[in-house]
């Protein structure tokens, strides 16, 4: 996708297929509010969540040029592993990488390969959400992958927007008895130094210019 019109088109195609705004948000990697905005801009009817009244501020990150090619993805994994190593100066100690489903999992796999580390995955609570209070739900670690307890780990995802998903994952790892020592993402749209005291390393930063306030 090259521009917002492509996004509007995709959002409306998905809406026409009957997807909710939450599902469209998952597919397009944007917030639920942004999904609602995109559908309404395309002439569709927003479902479940109201459109925001303020100007749109989210930024869609299309990293499919990496995601569709395993070789390129492995290069990104190498870069992220290197960046995470700069966090604590010695990532040879870390033998576990936790990927946040869905998009963070392939990235985490390449980072784990690079570090010769184990792989765990976490499905955040938003994946179970349809309606109602999302705080009543909980995420979960897949039993098909490595255990967390008593281990230090890196946490990997594609993007940070609000930081909600990464923060939830850090807390879930701590509750599971693990210790996150660094977070790695392709793009941190919020520009945070750390979340819950865990350093955040981003290959790219979004810096807004020319805006008031
Ligand atoms: O910082 P936040 O506001 O929580 O947003 C970032 C999250 O949103 C995206 O997930 P999404 O559910 O859109 O897609 P995915 O499940 O395919 O990864 C992204 O992969 C992060 O997990």
From TrEMBL:
<dbReference type="GO" id="GO:0006222">
    <property type="term" value="P:UMP biosynthetic process"/>
</dbReference>
<comment type="function">
    <text>DNA-binding transcriptional regulator that functions as a regulator of central sugar catabolic pathways.</text>
</comment>
<dbReference type="GO" id="GO:0004588">
    <property type="term" value="F:orotate phosphoribosyltransferase activity"/>
</dbReference>
<keyword id="KW-0328">Glycosyltransferase</keyword>
<dbReference type="InterPro" id="IPR000836">
    <property type="entry name" value="PRTase_dom"/>
</dbReference>
<dbReference type="GO" id="GO:0019856">
    <property type="term" value="P:pyrimidine nucleobase biosynthetic process"/>
</dbReference>
<dbReference type="Pfam" id="PF00156">
    <property type="entry name" value="Pribosyltran"/>
</dbReference>
<keyword id="KW-0808">Transferase</keyword>
<keyword id="KW-0238">DNA-binding</keyword>
<dbReference type="InterPro" id="IPR029057">
    <property type="entry name" value="PRTase-like"/>
</dbReference>
<dbReference type="InterPro" id="IPR022854">
    <property type="entry name" value="GfcR-like"/>
</dbReference>
<keyword id="KW-0805">Transcription regulation</keyword>
<protein>
    <recommendedName>
        <fullName>Transcriptional regulator GfcR</fullName>
    </recommendedName>
</protein>
<comment type="similarity">
    <text>Belongs to the purine/pyrimidine phosphoribosyltransferase family. GfcR subfamily.</text>
</comment>
<dbReference type="GO" id="GO:0003677">
    <property type="term" value="F:DNA binding"/>
</dbReference>
<dbReference type="GO" id="GO:0010468">
    <property type="term" value="P:regulation of gene expression"/>
</dbReference>
<keyword id="KW-0804">Transcription</keyword>
<feature type="domain" description="Phosphoribosyltransferase">
    <location>
        <begin position="76"/>
        <end position="191"/>
    </location>
</feature>
<dbReference type="InterPro" id="IPR053401">
    <property type="entry name" value="GcfR_halob"/>
</dbReference>
């Amino acid at each position: 996708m090259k521009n917002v019109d492509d996004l509007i088109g995709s959002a409306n195609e998905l809406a026409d297929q009957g997807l909710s705004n939450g599902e469209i948000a998952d597919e397009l990697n944007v917030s639920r509010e942004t999904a609602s905005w995109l559908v309404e801009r395309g002439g569709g009817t927003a479902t479940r969540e109201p459109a925001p009244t303020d100007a749109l501020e989210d930024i869609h990150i299309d990293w499919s040029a990496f995601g569709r090619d395993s070789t390129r993805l492995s290069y990104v994994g190498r870069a992220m592993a290197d960046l995470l190593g700069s966090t604590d100066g010695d990532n040879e100690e870390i033998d576990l990488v936790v990927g946040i489903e869905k998009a963070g999992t392939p990235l985490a796999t390449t980072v784990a390969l690079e570090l010769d580390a184990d792989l765990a995955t976490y499905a955040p609570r938003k994946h179970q959400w349809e309606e109602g209070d999302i705080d009543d739900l909980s995420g979960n670690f897949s039993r098909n992958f490595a255990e967390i307890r008593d281990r230090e780990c890196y946490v990997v995802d594609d993007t940070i927007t609000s930081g909600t998903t990464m923060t939830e994952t850090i807390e879930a790892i701590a509750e599971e008895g693990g210790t996150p020592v660094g977070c790695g993402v392709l793009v941190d749209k919020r520009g945070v130094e750390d979340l819950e005291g865990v350093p955040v390393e981003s290959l790219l930063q979004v810096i807004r210019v020319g805006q008031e306030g």
